[in-house]
User: Fold these one by one.
Assistant:
Number 1:
Amino acid sequence: MPPTPRRGARIAHIGIAVRAIDEILPFYRDLLGLDEHPLDDSDGARIAGLSAGPQLIELLEPLSADSPNSPISKFLERRGPGIHHICFAVQDLDGTLARCREKGVRMIDSTPRMGAEGKRIVFLHPASTGGVLIELTED
Ligand code: CO
């Protein structure tokens, strides 16, 4: 079988940690004119999805203020609101993970799990990515 041609990753979404979706949503929806794109809750966060071209902006709000296990709660506590992660869609998630492992990239998830968009995801540690939390998903 000939090797599958490799194609570069594309940005799937940018996750932004917010304290209250309701306060921020009007900026993105009404002033920038982004269409809402419904998404399920995930990882202890309520998510408001907004289409920005083929990419999404995801506003991530902790489901409850007292959910210490929510990664978004922890992020807000430590750093305040802001860009939380960038998600890249890759054509071959398993192959990409294998290459990352081979090069010693630090992983947050050791194996892929289901993300809010019903696709397999993994998070890579910012220590290996230039300081940015990176999510990988399937294209
Ligand atoms: Co994400």
Note: The mean pLDDT is 92.
Number 2:
Amino acid sequence: MNIILLGPPGAGKGTQAQRLVGERGMVQLSTGDMLRAAVKAGTPIGLKAKAVMEAGELVSDEIVSGIIGEALDGLQAETGVIFDGYPRTAAQAESLDALLADRGRALDHVIELEVDEDALVERITGRFTCATCGEGYHDRFKQPATAGECDKCHGHEFKRRPDDNEETVRTRMAEYRAKTAPILPIYDARDIVSRVDGMADIAEVTDAIEAILDR
Ligand code: AP5
Ligand code: MG
Ligand code: ZN
């Protein structure tokens, strides 16, 4: 099964993808995570992407489709994929079709997380992740069970993203509205889009997504 999680910044794509990985043995392919890893490692792609990401703008279609193609090549044919943060433009949607077809894969579901934009700034500015395993947390909505200790790996170091400030979030939302939301009709026409209330509790959102995948 191959699915896309679609939604604006802070909609919960990463949170839900991590939960589906845990429960279904699928693989999460997050272009945001892969680009952040490239920035950290100082690779040529990372050097190109750093300033663009800090400004909240989109990295080039060629770069992101290239890293998705490479990531798909590293997977077993039967492993299901959750695309998180990709595709984000009409050109990327077209590339994804070709990348999947070349590998004998097909898209099963596009799940749109519907959220109230006003809540997103709070979600994003309160977000932090475990520096060791990447588990996601939130100052208000998802604190570790023991303060200062990761639930998953018991690490004690956490980090925040440089693009998680209010000004950059506004740019990221504008990019979503202008370039990403317009790709939905492509998938609507194929009748593979399901909409989920992304304002519900984290576990309820997961249940709603699982119900769609089990349909
Ligand atoms: P990316 O990393 O994809 O960021 P984004 O799309 O802005 O989305 P986020 O990761 O901020 O949000 P999310 O939906 O994953 O929310 P999360 O689950 O963390 O991209 C970053 C940048 O990389 C882009 O700006 C661009 O520059 C570049 N890039 C990446 N992909 C690209 C592409 N394909 N093309 C071009 N450029 C690309 O949740 C947020 C917080 O809310 C968390 O703290 C969480 O705990 C909390 N939360 C989640 N769900 C709930 C809930 N139901 N109730 C309460 N709190 C919740
Ligand atoms: Mg994310
Ligand atoms: Zn951890």
Note: The radius of gyration is 17 Å.
